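User: My instructor asked us to take a sequence, write out its structure as tokens, and then describe one feature of it. I'm not sure where to start. Here is the sequence I was given:
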Amino acid sequence: MQGFKQKANYVITLLRERKPDRALIVHHDDADGLCSAAIVKKALEREGLLTETFCLEKVYREVIADLHSKEGLVLFYADIGSSHADLISELNCGRNLTIILDHHDPKQSNDSMVLDLNLEHFGFKGETDFSGATCCYLFAKELNSANSDLGYLALVGSSEIPGEFKALNSMVLQETLENGVVKKVGKSLEISRLNVKVDILFSKLQILGAVGYYEDGPDMGIKACLDGIDEALENKINVLEERRKNVNRKLLGRLYREGLKETEHIQWFDAGDMYQGMGTKVIGQFCSFLSYQTRLIKPDKYILGFVNVPPEIPKWGKLKENFVKASVRVPKPMQEMIDQGKLPGAVDLLEVASKGFGMADGHQYAANVVLPATRKAEFLENAECALKIKSKNQP
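Assistant: Let's start with the prediction itself. The structure tokens for your sequence are:
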């Protein structure tokens, strides 16, 4: 932690030297991304800054180029950005102070003004030890110790990591229990100020950000992180969740009837426009659900799902090209083989398969990539080829 604290304080010094009056917070659309944005927003507003939040499902080159085209800005990337720190550096060209607070597998920044505080740079694992929200929270505490009251959001964001809270997340849990920010109620954790359980808030944010991406869901989610959920928002969440469940049921029924398409190492399906009107995060959520359907999936093949990407980016405009998103999940029996280096991790596989035309990010068991719609077949062929080469090289 000492290395992280030193770099965080260096970043804070740069931030205060510039004396900005406003900051743009670019964040992801899942529960971790919404919690991350809420932490950064509250922490910066306590410093007297005006904040603007911009929810981005994926890093698109044309969007990032536009965001960094003006000079004199301060940008925060919350639960997004590390996997594309090299691209952000290229497009920033030293113009703007840019601070990345993330837990996805990082790339190297080549711009001294693009500073990545991802704790993977300091020996921790984003798959198990901390979430994007935890990274944001630890930075917020360095900015001002008064931000320790935001620790519950680190726990909500970290609920996306399977199993008990470990490493840095365990540290945050202990701290929040000691200072009364959360309390144990039976086997659950309850957020004292909001009177809502950590896992319940996590589930509701997953719906708001992903399913409600085109209906102001992310902004509603950030507000819910800080103020709780009222009756009107609860009703909105229920409508969104029913919409997703209906599509999930249709897609699952189709897959049980038709089966998944298969290569030697991959089982895959294409949802096309079935989730129209929802954010593309839903395809990853469905793939995660699918990984537990043992009567349907093979335990020794990567699970891959395609979905069409709507061209509209809320608060920004329209993408010039047609894209698809591919999400990958690794069945439980294969995860140990990835840990042993016998199989490529999900994000590594997607980076190789989409090299030169895709934008991949994620973790070793769960990852996604956005690629031109015309290159799906090439992408699948590349992925299968890479897996065959890896398999042949195993003793």
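For the description part of your assignment, you could build on this observation: The first helix runs from residue 2 to 18. Try explaining in your own words what that tells you about the chain.
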